[in-house]
Structure formats: C-alpha cells, structure tokens
Amino acid sequence: SGILNDNEGNYWFTTLHHGVYMSPSLNTYQVSSINAPVFALLNLNDSLLIAGSIKGTYIEIDSFNNINDSYFETFHGKNAIINLKQIRNDLWIIGKNVFVKVSPDKEKSYFIFGGNDISEDNNGNYIWSAHKAIRIKKKNTLEQYFIKENEITNAKLGHLLSVKWMKNNYNTQIAEKRSYCSIVKEKGNIWFATEEGVLIYNTKTQKMNSLSFLTGEVGAVKDIVYLRKWGLYAIGTDNKGVLLVNSNKIVLKTDISDGLPSNSVTCLKSDKDTLWVGTTKGMCKVFINSENQKLVTIPIHFASNRCINDIEKFNSKIYIATGQGIEYFNQSNLDLKK
Questions:
Q1: Model confidence, pTM
Q2: Taking CA atoms, which of 5, 169, 263, 285 is between 20 and 30 Å from 308?
C-alpha cells in the first residue's frame, strides 16, 4: 500500500494485510573488459550468455563471467549488433545491414539485408521486420517478398510521415511498414511491434491485421513478450508504460504513477511469474498480485538512472545491457525481507 526509500538506499513496502517488507540497498556488478555500449543479450541454451555491442562484435560469457575472446568478431565492417535471436539451434546476429546465422558448429551464413528482428512461421519460412517493411524469405530459397497491402487491411499504412509504394516479384502493389525490434511468435500468430501499434500475422491464413484497440492510442511499441503463466501479452510502449493485453482488450497496465521508472519502455523480459521492464531511466520488477489480480511494480533502485537496452536471465543472475557495457546482479538479492 506504500513505498518508502530510506537514507541508506533500502526500500520499505507496507501492505494491507501482510505486514512490512524491506528490499535492501544493493549494487550491480560490471562485466569487465566490455566498455562499449551493448544493445542485445541472449541466453543461449543456458550454457552461454551472448552479448552484441555497438562495435559489431558478439561476446560469449560463461557461467563464471569468463569472456571467450576467441569469438570476438567484427562482421561486415562497422555494423552495430541491434538484436540477437535463437531459432531452433541456430544463433541469429542481427545488424543494421546484415543478418548472420551461426550454426551450433560455428558455421556462418550471411544474409545481406537489414532489420530489427526475425522469426520463423509454421512452414519454416523466415519472417523479419526490416527498417521499413515486414518481409518473408521462403524456406530453402533466396526468394523474398513483402507482406502485401491487402494483408494489412486494418493497419494504418506507411510510417509516420509518408507512405511509400513498391512492387514485388508478382507485380503486386504493396506498402512499406516501419517496424521496431520485437517479434513474438505464439499460438500460430506472429506479433510485430511497430511505431504505430501492433500488427498480428496469422501463419496459417497468411493474413495481417492490426490490434485495433491500440491503434492511435499508444503510438510506438518498443517490445512485446508473451506471459505464458498469465495468458497475456505485455506491450512495452514509448510513452504509455506497460500494457497487458489479450487479442481483444487491455487487461492491466502500469506506468510512472505505479512505480515505473519511466513511461518510455525499452525492453521486456518474461521470467516465470515475473516481468522485468527496462526503461530509459532504469528498470523494475512487475508481477500480478494473486489476491486482487492487480499489478505490483517494484523499482530496482540499484539499476536506476540509466537507459536499459536489454535484460536477460543467465545462471540465476539478471544481466542488463547499457550504454556502459553489461551489469548484473543476483536475483536472490531482490527477495523481500519481512
């Protein structure tokens, strides 16, 4: 029911029926030797933490925070890594102008196209969000095509300032759609975060529709994760905080008035019954109170006052990517003391 920050940096929480809890003042630890801004983190099969930096290098970190220098690599010139993704057993390194697929035996395949994120439909076709469009690459071919205009029937076409028209190989007029860096595949649908809301692509019908109740209401969407335990999607917005939605409506939400460090969300990470939220001014932990089904938002005070680019859980620790490199803290340190 209330939060108090004392002079030593501890947070005290009062509840209506369960007493008073304290979250101790703690610090994050810096992963040494990484001094460049890091945009992306990925837990690869619980064996390695992969980090992608602005310098175009990817870094492997083991459970002892040892850095594998032999896999430092700058690919395709100076090309910042903006995202990392695992599809089946392959690691995808996503740069501004190139995608690199790395197999388990370290064999690399280069795809000379830029974008923000990649996923795979039920037929093995790759779908990715490019800088100005949503594209599909058919399985085992080099053929690429855009999502067609008539498959975006309910979406506001084009990006914020203009609509650009192109023609694909089938001579069909299509519209470009700028997309942000998040694609979530769940229950046969692929959800795209865009700067005008959310688009949903049905992999069975191959039709695209917008999440109409968000269009024009939230503006840019920066990240999406599926919260399996709650059966809801978490939508991280650029100026409205975090929304928990189903395909029909907004169910719950949290913003700066509830304890979110900023309404400008940068990244989301789902971890069992917890949602980790990164913002431009720090991060927080969010969960649903089982008694009243309301969201509880707890700021992570020792990871505040900096932009959080990405969050990942690895080896019972929470790692955060920032403009200064990579920091981490032990998740058990956040346990509240009654």
A1: 0.79
A2: 5
